[in-house]
Amino acid sequence: MNDRPKSNRKLLRSLEPYLWLAPAMILFAVFTFYPFLETIYKSFFIVDALGNLKRFVWFQNYTYILSDKVFVKAIGNTLWYTILTVPISKVFGMLLALFANKRRRTSVFYEAGFAVPMAMASSVTAMIFQLLYVPSLGFLNGFFGWKVQWLNNPKIAMISIAVIQIWLSTGYAFIFMLSAVRSVPQDVIESARLDGASEFRQLTKIFVPLTSPTMFYLIITDLAFSMMMMSLVNVLTDGGPQNSTITIMQYIYKQISATGNYTNANPAAIIAFILTLAASMLGFLWEKKGVHYQ
Question: Which UniProt keywords are present, listed alphabetically (predicted)?
Answer without folding.
Answer: Cell membrane, Membrane, Transmembrane, Transmembrane helix, Transport
